[in-house]
Amino acid sequence: MTASHTGIRTAALAITALFFLGGCASLEERVAQIKATSTVNAPSTWNSAAEATRTIAPTDDTLAVWWRQFTDPQLDALIEAALTAAPDVRTAQAKLRQSRAARELAVANLYPSLDVSASATRSRAAASAGGTGKTQTLYAAGFDASWEPSIFGGLRDAASGAEADAAAAAATLESTRASLAAEVALEYVTLRASQQRLEIARANVASQAETLQIATWREMAGLVTTLDVEQARTNLEQSRASIPSLENSRAAAENRLALLTGRVPGSWHTALQDVKPLPTAPDEIAVGIPADTLRRRPDLRSAEFTLRAEIARTAEREADRYPTLTLSGSLGWKAFSTAALGGSGSLARSLAASLAANIFDAGRISSRIEAQSAVQEQALITYEKTLLTALEDVENAMVSYATGRDRIEARRRAAVAAANAAILARNQYEAGIADFQKVLETERTRLTAEDNLASAEADILTAVIQLYKALGGGWQATPTPQ
User: Fold this and answer.
1) Secondary structure, 3-state, the chain
2) Is 143 part of a structural domain of the chain?
3) Cβ–Cβ under 8 Å, residues 186 and 458
4) What pTM does this model have?
5) Which is deepest, 60, 85, 195, 203, by most CB within 10 Å?
């Protein structure tokens, strides 16, 4: 009997596996057909490829930890802390566990269920009713089994949809990690740029304070009027007024970094309070071809898995139109003593099969199929939009990177020229061969040029970060579970 049951169980599992594999193949065909209807396709080349970018494919290791190219240990520490403790990452991890549990439940529904039971019932029949008047105990033990083979694929499609949901949740987690790494890097650049701009503003305030002192001395000597002194004081106070806004920007970036790393505001103040230069942007970036980028983008992978899940659920709804087969059986023993339970006379067994089909439901099944088809269409549109957004992100980032390199060189030359002009104007004013208005103009120009240079250096780093994010960097690809 044991060998017989083992053979039945093996056959049942084999049939289930065949049904499940057949359902997967059918799903692949349906996914291919649905995606073939899309009019959105990846171009063969980038429209905005520049000299600073190369169309060779970047290595996966480089993209996975792209921020290490900046060789900034503080930035590395911030990103690692965020990837470990950020609230968004922890939420995505919890959603992934939920999706995997739902997948296991859906797959478990494909297999037979086996229950074991045991009971003891004590009873006494009244003698006046024709009974013996004695108290008896009925012992029972047995096994109950049931299985829905899913002949027309409803349960198999549900399992396929749950599998795709779990894969989409995994891709969403990686997309969250990639976005988080980029956001931390952007806030770090904002913080360092604010520090640089603060240093520039304070240096200009100190220089303008000296100019005010010079004007005061010349006014005391009767060489100039009070007008020069008041103009110098106005210029100085206007420069001082720019410092609080830069302080706010620095503090906001610091607090944002604390939030992104799952810490309270002020946690990173000691580590980040020292002024450090901005990281250096790479001279060129390998971008590969559009098809490579789309394969790496975790958000696009998530959208594609979501589409697969909705296609599977549409097939699941369509299976409701067909009959369902349920097999059940039981094997057990009943006796008035535990010693007699194993005897042949106490054995009881049963086997049943039921076939059920809907013949009229006033259109309920058709309505559910139509509603799910609309959800599937929305998933396809979301997939297409995600694909277009990915292409747009890369194109915009490449343009920003290319133009940013040209802009930073021009602003560097402008800052040098403005500094030289300010020094010359002050020397000429001290010598009495230039009016004070020229000194004021050159000092304002110097402050603006140096501030613009710091902003341009931050902008080029921002473009680099956005480009790496657009290329699908910030996560490590792993094989998709089947």
Assistant:
1) CHHHHHHHHHHHHHHHHHHHHHHHHHHHHHHHHHHHCCCCCCCCCCCCCCCCEECCCCCHHHHHCHHHHHCCHHHHHHHHHHHHHCHHHHHHHHHHHHHHHHHHHHHHCCCCEEEEEEEEEEEECCHHHCCCCCEEEEEEEEEEEEECCCCCCHHHHHHHHHHHHHHHHHHHHHHHHHHHHHHHHHHHHHHHHHHHHHHHHHHHHHHHHHHHHHHHHHHHCCCCCHHHHHHHHHHHHHHHHHHHHHHHHHHHHHHHHHHHCCCCCCCCHHHHCCCCCCCCCCCCEECCCHHHHHHHCHHHHHHHHHHHHHHHHHHHHHHHHCCEEEEEEEEEEEECCHHHCCCHHHEEEEEEEEEECCCCCCCHHHHHHHHHHHHHHHHHHHHHHHHHHHHHHHHHHHHHHHHHHHHHHHHHHHHHHHHHHHHHHHHHHHHCCCCHHHHHHHHHHHHHHHHHHHHHHHHHHHHHHHHHHHCCCCCCCCCCCC
2) no
3) no
4) 0.80
5) 195
CATH number, domain at 227? 1.20.1600.10
Tell me the residue range of the domain where 443 lies.
2-110+151-321+365-470
The stretches in the chain having pLDDT less than 70 are: 1-25, 49-60, 125-133, 338-340, 342-344, 476-482
**pLDDT averaged over the chain?**
84
Is 333 among the domain residues?
Answer: no
Is residue 391 assigned to a domain? yes
CA distance 439 to 213: 13
Q: Cβ(321)–Cβ(359) under 8 Å?
A: no
pLDDT score recorded for residue 55:
58
pLDDT for res 15: 46
Q: Tell me, what's the pLDDT at 440?
A: 84
User: What value does the CA radius of gyration of the chain take, rounded to a whole number of Å?
Assistant: 37
Read off φ and ψ for residue 146, nearest 5 degrees: -145, 150
Q: Is the residue at 187 inside a domain?
A: yes
pLDDT digits (tens, 9 = 90+) for 283-335: 778 888 888 888 889 999 999 999 999 999 999 899 889 998 888 888 888 77
CA 222 to chain centre: 69
Interatomic CA distance for residues 307 and 126, integer angstroms: 67
Q: How many domains does the chain have?
A: 1
C-alpha to C-alpha distance for 278 and 282, rounded to whole angstroms: 13
